[in-house]
Amino acid sequence: MTVIFSKKCEYGLQAVLYLSTIEDGRTAPAEEISKKLNIPKEFVSKILQSLALKKIVGSKKGNSGGFFLGKPASQIKLIEIVEAIDGLSLFHNCVLGFPDCSPESPCPVHNKWGKLRSDAYDMLTKETLEQFKKKSIAKIKMMNDV
Amino acid sequence: MTVIFSKKCEYGLQAVLYLSTIEDGRTAPAEEISKKLNIPKEFVSKILQSLALKKIVGSKKGNSGGFFLGKPASQIKLIEIVEAIDGLSLFHNCVLGFPDCSPESPCPVHNKWGKLRSDAYDMLTKETLEQFKKKSIAKIKMMNDV
DNA sequence: CTTTAAACAGATTAAATTATCTGATTAATT
DNA sequence: AATTAATCAGATAATTTAATCTGTTTAAAG
Q1: B13 in A contact zone (CB under 8 Å)
Q2: CATH number of the domain enclosing A38
Q3: pLDDT of residue B57
Q4: What residues of chain A, 35 to 74, have a C-beta less than 8 Å from chain B?
């Protein structure tokens, strides 16, 4: 089981973070991303294709083609990737699965979860890939060093 | 998509909360729980059977049998149900799905998620079914009133 | 202009999760 | 003793998610 995102979304987030770490102007083929992140190649390729439709990443066919960020890292937030892949229902639905959970008909943990949910939203919204860059580089380096 | 728990776990949590609202000494058959919570009968029955093995709920076969809490509501915490059904990996795994996320090799949101995760854990650990009782009664009433 | 390496498209398979079915056992009630 | 209403057990079906395969298009490099 994943934590809160689907596998597709986790892979998408990782892949985009990876793209934020490569040299400017360079393009990363699916095979490279797959190897660096241990994600099935065809799967990550499909995911990035879908993100390309939303202009979050760009792609280039043919020899020496591959994927790259669709806009400057300073203009991409993690929430965009989540929205594009899993959607935002995570931030609307009741954590216990009760129907119509709302201030008028709250579940037993409604208030507590509301706070958590908004903090989680902030985590994905307040910083850009640019601000995550150093940490992303470090994490990906660690993964391939060992 | 569910928020953080599997459907099985959501149903289990709802069902146990329901059991905490019924009159002491009474037993609720799967059919009743199913109707009140809009959960497939056989499914909720299976889930409660598995919780019965862990003594979180009790069960009684035969005519006028059904399910009931396995111990006083003041001694049951939501985390027990989560642990019994989904397990606790939610509280160990990286929210972005990176392998070996730790203070030594943190993902870009490691610290922020760490705080959130521990708040989520508290939400499931600090209060008992007894303390949720009023809210549970109100929520379940609302669901069936409309 | 041929080769090569890539995205892209569509179909298919595999695995996990969710849901249902069938029958057996159990126990209270009539 | 018979009927009824329930859990329980095991199998199966349906759905969703994850992963793979096959082939086509594209474009750089030799």
Answers
A1: yes
A2: 1.10.10.10
A3: 98
A4: 38
Query: pLDDT tens for residues A69-90?
Result: 999 999 999 999 999 999 999 9
How many folded domains does chain A comprise?
Answer: 1
Residue of A nearest to B93 (CA): A3
Assess if residue A93 is contained within a domain. no
Give the residue from chain B lying closest to A110, CA to CA.
Answer: B135
Residue B58: pLDDT band (50, 70, 90) is very high
**Chain A nearest CA to B139, separation (Å):** 6
B29: in domain? yes
For the stretch A16-52, pLDDT in tens is: 999 999 999 999 999 999 999 999 999 999 999 999 9
**In terms of residue numbers, what domain contains B12?**
7-87+128-140
Report how far apart, in Å, the C-alpha atoms of A9 and of each of A82, A138, B79 are: 6, 21, 26
Residue A1 is predicted with a pLDDT of 86
Our measurement of CA A19 to C1' C18, in angstroms, reads: 36
CA A136/CA A129 separation, integer angstroms: 9
Assess if residue B67 is contained within a domain. yes
